[in-house]
Amino acid sequence: MPKTVNLLLVDDDEVDVQGLKRAFTRSKIGNPITVARDGIEALEILRGISGKPPLPKPHLILLDLNMPRMNGLEFLEEIRADEDLKSALVFMITTSKDDEDKARAYGHNVAGYIVKQDPANTFLQAVSLLEHYWKIVEFPE
Q: Strands 59-63 and 6-10, how do they pair?
Protein backbone atom coordinates (compact mmCIF):
# COMPACT_ATOMS: atom_id res chain seq x y z
CA MET A 1 0.00 0.00 0.00
CA PRO A 2 1.45 3.41 -0.96
CA LYS A 3 2.39 5.83 1.79
CA THR A 4 0.45 9.04 2.26
CA VAL A 5 2.08 11.95 0.48
CA ASN A 6 2.26 15.02 2.74
CA LEU A 7 1.87 18.36 0.99
CA LEU A 8 3.72 21.52 1.93
CA LEU A 9 2.13 24.59 0.38
CA VAL A 10 4.48 27.57 0.50
CA ASP A 11 2.45 30.67 -0.40
CA ASP A 12 1.80 34.00 1.32
CA ASP A 13 -1.50 34.67 -0.50
CA GLU A 14 -4.40 33.47 1.68
CA VAL A 15 -6.81 33.51 -1.29
CA ASP A 16 -4.53 31.14 -3.21
CA VAL A 17 -4.06 28.91 -0.16
CA GLN A 18 -7.82 28.61 0.31
CA GLY A 19 -8.36 28.08 -3.42
CA LEU A 20 -5.90 25.22 -3.49
CA LYS A 21 -7.42 23.64 -0.38
CA ARG A 22 -10.89 23.89 -2.00
CA ALA A 23 -9.54 22.20 -5.13
CA PHE A 24 -8.25 19.29 -3.02
CA THR A 25 -11.61 19.03 -1.25
CA ARG A 26 -13.56 19.12 -4.56
CA SER A 27 -11.30 16.42 -5.94
CA LYS A 28 -11.90 14.37 -2.75
CA ILE A 29 -8.20 14.26 -1.93
CA GLY A 30 -7.53 14.05 1.78
CA ASN A 31 -3.75 14.24 1.87
CA PRO A 32 -2.41 16.28 4.78
CA ILE A 33 -1.63 19.89 3.79
CA THR A 34 0.78 22.04 5.79
CA VAL A 35 1.01 25.74 4.93
CA ALA A 36 4.07 27.97 5.20
CA ARG A 37 3.85 31.70 4.42
CA ASP A 38 7.41 32.03 3.09
CA GLY A 39 10.61 30.09 2.50
CA ILE A 40 11.95 30.59 6.01
CA GLU A 41 8.83 29.09 7.61
CA ALA A 42 8.90 26.25 5.06
CA LEU A 43 12.50 25.39 5.97
CA GLU A 44 11.56 25.34 9.66
CA ILE A 45 8.72 22.91 8.88
CA LEU A 46 10.90 20.67 6.72
CA ARG A 47 13.78 20.64 9.22
CA GLY A 48 11.63 20.33 12.34
CA ILE A 49 12.85 23.45 14.11
CA SER A 50 11.52 24.73 17.48
CA GLY A 51 11.05 21.27 18.97
CA LYS A 52 8.62 20.14 16.27
CA PRO A 53 9.27 17.01 14.21
CA PRO A 54 10.14 17.52 10.52
CA LEU A 55 7.37 17.12 7.94
CA PRO A 56 7.02 13.36 7.35
CA LYS A 57 8.25 11.90 4.08
CA PRO A 58 7.22 11.35 1.41
CA HIS A 59 6.30 14.95 0.86
CA LEU A 60 5.65 17.16 -2.11
CA ILE A 61 6.19 20.91 -2.05
CA LEU A 62 3.99 23.41 -3.89
CA LEU A 63 5.99 26.62 -4.03
CA ASP A 64 5.05 30.19 -4.89
CA LEU A 65 7.70 32.43 -6.40
CA ASN A 66 7.07 35.88 -4.92
CA MET A 67 6.97 35.90 -1.12
CA PRO A 68 8.39 38.06 1.70
CA ARG A 69 11.53 37.21 3.70
CA MET A 70 12.61 34.32 1.42
CA ASN A 71 11.14 33.93 -2.05
CA GLY A 72 10.67 30.69 -3.96
CA LEU A 73 13.98 30.78 -5.83
CA GLU A 74 15.93 31.53 -2.64
CA PHE A 75 14.11 28.63 -0.97
CA LEU A 76 15.06 26.31 -3.85
CA GLU A 77 18.72 27.34 -3.55
CA GLU A 78 18.61 26.58 0.17
CA ILE A 79 17.02 23.13 -0.08
CA ARG A 80 19.18 22.03 -3.02
CA ALA A 81 22.26 22.83 -0.90
CA ASP A 82 20.90 20.83 2.07
CA GLU A 83 21.89 17.16 2.07
CA ASP A 84 18.64 16.08 3.78
CA LEU A 85 16.35 18.17 1.56
CA LYS A 86 18.07 18.33 -1.82
CA SER A 87 15.96 15.53 -3.32
CA ALA A 88 12.66 17.17 -2.29
CA LEU A 89 9.99 17.08 -4.98
CA VAL A 90 8.94 20.66 -5.76
CA PHE A 91 6.32 22.08 -8.11
CA MET A 92 6.46 25.84 -8.65
CA ILE A 93 2.95 27.34 -8.75
CA THR A 94 3.06 31.07 -9.48
CA THR A 95 1.66 33.98 -11.46
CA SER A 96 5.03 34.65 -13.11
CA LYS A 97 5.22 33.83 -16.82
CA ASP A 98 8.74 35.26 -17.02
CA ASP A 99 11.08 32.97 -18.99
CA GLU A 100 13.99 33.79 -16.68
CA ASP A 101 11.94 32.71 -13.62
CA LYS A 102 11.03 29.46 -15.39
CA ALA A 103 14.65 28.79 -16.37
CA ARG A 104 15.92 29.49 -12.86
CA ALA A 105 13.25 27.24 -11.32
CA TYR A 106 14.06 24.36 -13.67
CA GLY A 107 17.74 25.03 -13.03
CA HIS A 108 16.98 24.09 -9.41
CA ASN A 109 15.30 20.86 -10.52
CA VAL A 110 11.63 21.65 -10.01
CA ALA A 111 9.33 18.86 -11.15
CA GLY A 112 7.05 21.36 -12.88
CA TYR A 113 6.27 25.04 -13.31
CA ILE A 114 2.55 25.85 -13.15
CA VAL A 115 1.29 29.35 -13.96
CA LYS A 116 -1.79 30.59 -12.06
CA GLN A 117 -3.71 32.06 -14.98
CA ASP A 118 -7.29 31.44 -13.93
CA PRO A 119 -6.78 30.43 -10.29
CA ALA A 120 -9.97 28.36 -9.87
CA ASN A 121 -9.31 26.24 -12.95
CA THR A 122 -5.54 26.23 -12.54
CA PHE A 123 -5.86 24.85 -9.01
CA LEU A 124 -8.26 22.10 -10.09
CA GLN A 125 -6.00 21.14 -13.00
CA ALA A 126 -2.90 21.23 -10.79
CA VAL A 127 -4.56 19.07 -8.13
CA SER A 128 -5.63 16.55 -10.78
CA LEU A 129 -2.07 16.44 -12.13
CA LEU A 130 -0.61 15.95 -8.65
CA GLU A 131 -3.09 13.22 -7.75
CA HIS A 132 -2.16 11.23 -10.85
CA TYR A 133 1.53 11.95 -10.29
CA TRP A 134 1.78 10.55 -6.78
CA LYS A 135 -0.39 7.55 -7.65
CA ILE A 136 2.06 6.32 -10.28
CA VAL A 137 5.42 7.66 -9.12
CA GLU A 138 7.46 5.68 -6.59
CA PHE A 139 8.76 7.72 -3.67
CA PRO A 140 11.85 6.72 -1.67
CA GLU A 141 11.34 5.65 1.93
A: parallel
Tens-digit pLDDT string for the chain (141 aa) = 456 788 899 999 898 888 888 888 887 878 888 999 999 999 999 999 878 899 988 888 999 999 999 999 999 999 999 999 998 889 998 888 999 999 999 999 998 898 887 766 777 677 777 776 666 666 665
Q: Which residue segments constitute the domains of the chain, with CATH numbers given?
A: 1-96 (3.40.50.2300)
Q: How many angstroms separate the CA atoms of 13 and 4, rounded? A: 26
Its pTM stands at 0.86
Q: Where are the alpha helices (DSSP H) in the chain?
A: 14-26, 39-47, 72-80, 99-107, 119-136
